[in-house]
């Protein structure tokens, strides 16, 4: 059974695969085609199933696993999402941006892990991202869990795949409140809307920040991303960009 998926991101991903791995006339005929590999990888990311439980049509699950890692090494997922994000930025100008982070529990991760202060010091990874008013993500920046949000604004902005619209409001919670972060926000041409620590919490001030909280709930629908089972952070980031591509593709259909 073929899983339904948006067409734009799939097309851009297929172009990147063909660019990095062109079809060759010599050698053995290729048994695993792009459509089958993409559907199998997407099934793992959405359901969170183990690779050994995957039942491909014509090949072993190990072939699909190695194909995914081959695509990750070539940067296929990140490049395809960057191109999709550029198309999105051309069609729509965001009303505001919002930055926040979330903790990802770690099981087998060997790098980019630190003690989670909210989970009794267990090893975890922190995912920092920036979204617009529709919840479209512009970056996936992973750090160890013991890194403070106050120190994550500059590296997250430096990791942007597409530049942000200058003169736009930039919201952040009290964890990002510092003079340095306000200076960084101004240097990128963004209007500082970082909440002050001693300000009173009211529903109106946090209304616009709700978009990034909803975005994290959308990411949780991709069960493979809730807990980090991948050993290397590059694999987890690539799976994250796959989920980002599906979310952004839905936004493009709504514009």
Overview of the structural elements:
Helix content is 41%, strand content 15%. The chain is α/β, with parallel strands linked by helices and 255 residues long. It has a domain at 94-230: Ribonuclease H-like superfamily/Ribonuclease H (Nucleotidyltransferase, domain 5, 2-Layer Sandwich). Strands 1, 2, 3, 4, 5, 6 and 7 form a seven-stranded mixed beta sheet that branches. A hairpin with a 7-residue loop joins strand 2 (114-115) and strand 3. Helix 1 crosses helix 4 (76-91) and helix 4 (76-91) runs parallel beside helix 8. It is globular. Mean pLDDT is 91; it is low at 1-5.
What fold name goes in the CATH topology slot of one domain? Nucleotidyltransferase, domain 5
Q: Specify the number of helices.
A: 8
Strand percentage: 5-15%
Shape: globular
Radius of gyration: 19 Å
Structural class: alpha/beta
Biggest sheet statistics: 7 strands, mixed
Order of helices and strands: HHHHEEEEHEHEHEH
CATH class of one domain: Alpha Beta
What is the name of the CATH architecture of one domain? Answer: 2-Layer Sandwich
DSSP strand count: 7
- In CATH, the homologous superfamily of one domain goes by the name Ribonuclease H-like superfamily/Ribonuclease H
First-last Cα distance: 30 Å
């Amino acid at each position: 059974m073929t899983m339904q998926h948006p067409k734009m991101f799939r097309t851009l991903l297929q172009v990147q695969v063909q660019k990095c791995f062109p079809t060759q006339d010599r050698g053995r005929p290729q048994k695993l085609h792009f459509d089958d590999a993409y559907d199998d990888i997407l099934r793992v990311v959405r359901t969170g199933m183990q690779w050994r439980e995957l039942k491909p049509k014509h090949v072993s699950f190990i072939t699909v696993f190695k194909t995914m890692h081959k695509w990750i090494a070539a940067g296929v997922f990140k490049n395809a999402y960057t191109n999709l994000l550029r198309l999105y930025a051309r069609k729509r100008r965001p009303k505001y941006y919002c930055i926040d982070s979330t903790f990802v529990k770690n099981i087998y991760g060997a790098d980019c892990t630190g003690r989670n202060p909210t989970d009794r010091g267990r090893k975890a990874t922190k995912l920092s991202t920036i979204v617009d008013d529709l919840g479209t993500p512009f970056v996936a920046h992973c750090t160890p869990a013991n890194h403070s949000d106050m120190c994550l604004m500059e590296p997250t902005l430096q990791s942007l795949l597409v530049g942000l619209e200058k003169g736009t409001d930039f919201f952040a919670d009290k964890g990002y409140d510092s003079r340095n972060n306000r200076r960084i926000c101004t240097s990128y041409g963004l209007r500082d809307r970082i909440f002050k620590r001693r300000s009173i919490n009211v529903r109106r001030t946090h209304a616009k920040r709700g978009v990034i909280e909803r975005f994290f709930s959308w990411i949780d629908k991709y069960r493979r991303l809730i807990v980090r089972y991948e050993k290397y952070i590059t694999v987890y980031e690539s799976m994250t960009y796959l989920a980002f591509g599906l979310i952004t593709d839905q936004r493009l259909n709504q514009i």
